[in-house]
Structure formats: structure tokens, C-alpha cells
Amino acid sequence: MLVGSWSLIICRVPSTTTGTKISSSMLLRRATFAITPMKYDEDLLPFAMGPDLAHPELAFNQETDAKLLAWVETVTSGWPEAAHDLASTLTDNPGRISRAFRGLLSGYSVRPEEVLKITMETPHDGHHGLVSSDKVPFLSFCAHHFLPFFGLVDIVYEPGTYIIGIGKMPRLVSCRSRRFQLQELLVKQIAEDMMDHAKAKGVYIRSAAHHMCVCYRGPDFASVKNVTTYSLGSLDHPEREPEIVAAMQAAADE
Ligand SMILES: [Zn+2]
């Protein structure tokens, strides 16, 4: 099911909890929730995240580790062995954890308008058709819980002034996901970037993800998958849905 405008969230949970209703989010002007059984999707593992970015200008060392351990001591108050266990692994490579998080949050060092800056102009007779990239992997951090969520993004757009280099799609997804983020806003921001910086006529974005902040709450929720969509411009119309589905299906079949 697609949407004509704004976002759709589908929260899929195991069949044992079918029938559970989830209240709509304040973020969405129009949201629909459908709950159906699902099997665990191996495709949603956080693979292919790309190389860690080096940040030689930042010195993560024993001093910064001390601040990290102070935070760990706060959240593990009453369990002194927790900070001790962590500290014992930092001595051989100070700053390791901070550098890892720096890479996972490196979207803040990338500007979407820079990612989409170099583009190819469409031929003078125009481009007639849709362009899609499917199953672009991402890993992000829930802005509510500081816990990761990860999954895949599908992008379908109708070119306007420019045709976007295919390699820009994963970079744009990485730019917007490697931040403190909400899955609802992830698709909205990518859609707006495509309209604002790539001058697309229309765009449809879909994401599917597993959230640690949902999965840790019980074994039955380990396979919950959340889906968000967002459409703008010429693709924000119900009559375009068959084209969008066909474009996504064509990419999925390759
Ligand atoms: Zn969360």
C-alpha cells in the first residue's frame, strides 16, 4: 500500500500479537497502521555500512575515555563492575569507542546539498520515466533512546532539471541516517533533499527498519519491522502509485 501524500507507518509484529493497535504519531498529518505477521528479513542487517571515516583532527584518548567512563558509571550506577569491564578493554586502544561512534554519526559532517551538487542535466527533450534505487542499507541512532536502528531505503524519483548520479543515493542516505534521527523524519528529509537540491519533479521514499529500542523490550518484538514512506511533488498522487510500484519492483527483480 502506498500513500498519496505524507507518510505511512506500518509496524509489523509477530502473529502472536496481531490485532494490537498502535496510536498514531504526532509527527504525521495522516498516518495509517497495519499490523501483519512477518518473517525476519535478513536483508535488514546493517551490512555494507562503508569505511569508517578518519578524523585525525580529533584526539580521542585516555582523557576522553575518562569522560566516556563517567557517563557509563552514571547509567550503570550501583554496578561498579560495569565501568571496570569497559575500562579494561580501552587500555590497549584508547579512544576506540569514541572513534567508532564518530564514524557512525558522521552524517553531521556531510551536507546534503554537497552530496547532490554535481549532477547531469536532463536532455533537452526531457526525461520521461522514473528512476529508482532500492535496498540502500543504512544504520542510524534513535534520537529518543540513543540506540541504533537499521534497515533499507528505497528511492523512486521523477527527474526534473537533473539526473542524479546513481552513486549519490547511498551517500545521501548515509548523510541523513548517520545522525540522531527518527525513521519518520529520515524519509521526509531525503524526499525534501531530492526536491530542493536535485530539483526532482517528484519523489517517493520508503524505509524499513528494525529498532533496538523496540526489539529489546521482549523476545516477541525481536522481529518487529517499521516502515515509513514519504512522497512529494509529481509522485504525491494516488494515480502515480502503479508506476512507483513498477519502478520499485523492477529494481527489486534485478
Ligand atoms: Zn527509540
Features:
GTP Cyclohydrolase I, domain 2; binds zinc ion; 254 residues; 31% helix; two-stranded antiparallel sheet; alpha+beta; disordered N terminus; 6-stranded mixed beta sheet
Helix-strand sequence: EHHHHEEEEHEHEHEH
- Corresponding CATH superfamily of the largest domain: GTP cyclohydrolase I, C-terminal domain/NADPH-dependent 7-cyano-7-deazaguanine reductase, N-terminal domain
The separation of the N and C termini measures 22 Å
Supply the CATH class of the largest domain. Alpha Beta
Tell me the structural class: alpha+beta
Mean pLDDT: 79
Bound molecules: zinc ion
Largest sheet: 6 strands, mixed
β-strand number: 8
What proportion of the residues form beta strands (DSSP E)?
A: 15-25%
Short description:
This protein is of the alpha+beta class and 254 residues long. It has helices spanning 62-75, 80-90, 96-104, 112-115, 168-177, 183-196, 212-215, 241-253; strands at residues 8-12, 120-121, 131-142, 148-158, 162-163, 180-181, 202-211, 225-233. The chain folds into 2 domains: 5-52 and 110-252, GTP Cyclohydrolase I, domain 2 (2-Layer Sandwich); 62-94, no CATH class.
